[in-house]
Structures are given as C-alpha cells and as structure tokens.
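Checklist before submission:
- one chain only
- standard amino acids only
- sequence pasted in full

Submission:
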Amino acid sequence: MSRDTETAKPRREDYQRALSSMNTFMDIEVNDLMMLADRAQQFAVRRVTASIGVTQIMSKPVTVVSPQTTMSAAAHLMVEGRISGLPVVDDANRLLGIITEADFLRALGVPAHHPTHSIWQTLESMFSHLAHHAGMEGPNDPVAEHMVREVICVGEEQDVHDVLDAMKRHRVKRVLVCDNERHVSGVITRSDLVRIFFDRYTQGSALSAQVSG
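Returned file contents:
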C-alpha cells in the first residue's frame, strides 16, 4: 500500500493548492521553491490517499457466529482471536447483528458505556461484579439475545473517507463491509485506519525529506 504514496507525483493542481496555502505573494527563491515542492508533494499524497478503497484495508476472512452460538462460546472466540466484535450471520452468511465486548459487559451488568466512567472505573466494576458472582450470568444464552441488530456497514465500492464518515456519524469503532444482500466480506476497525494513515504519513514524510534534502 506504500507504493501508491511512493508514486504520488505532484500535479499542477497540487502545486496550485500548495501555492495558495502559503497565502502570500513573493519573489521565488530556492527555499521558497523547495517549500512549494514540499507542500505540493503533501497534497499529492493526500490525493492518492483519498482513493483508497475499503477492499484494500478491510480484514478478511471475518470470524462470524450464528444466532444460536452461546455467549460463552462467542467469548472464547473473541479472547482466542483477540477480536472485539463478532458479526452474527444466518446460514447464508447474511448479517443479522453483531456481538461486541460492550455487549458482554452489559450482559454482566457492568456499566461499560457510562459517560462518567473511566476505563479504570469500568474495570473496577467488572472485578466487583466477579467478586459477587461465580461466573457469567447466562453463559449458555444464545448471542441472539444480546447482540445489536442495527449494524453499520459500507459497500465494497466505497472508500476510506466513507468509512471515516460512517464511524464519526454513528460513533462506532468498526464497520462491516457487506454487499447489497448483507453478505459479510470484511471488517474495518479504527486500528486499521490508524495503521493505514500512519503508513501513509511516514511514507509521505520520507518523500518530503527527499524533496527538500
């Protein structure tokens, strides 16, 4: 994925945007030209980044569960696979809902989404709960009883900015990639986005250093 950034050659539009961003009139000198080239390179990288499709960044295959999967079995899958959410699908792999860490905490009676609770207060609540209960309440409950049914999805034809917009608008940590019939093909988390933009940023910084060096 770093190849796209490496081949992000500035176009006339990038130089125009770079010149406009400097917000001044000046006699061009070497330093000015180097600064202009550096900014044009940055705009070129941003332009290439905007074309990243969801299929380039989504994780697949996706670990899924059925509505009848027990909460304990789902918890085991999440811990073993270090997964924070499991899509719930029917026999045709059509999305029905999702079960997340927060849903497990709610099933335990832990106030995971309390707006005034820090992570430490949430953990304290968990241990306090465990001190009074031998194990999870209803470990054999099917996930269908605790899953969230309204799941935020994007299509395979969309791009990274659609994902960002969906996460921001719905305040979610992940989106599923589905087709028109709700078949799950991938998942994108905030960690995936951080990784992508970090890779792009470091590659772009390296290129800018080469231009100004």
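Reviewer check: Residues 9 and 149 are 45 Å apart (CA to CA).
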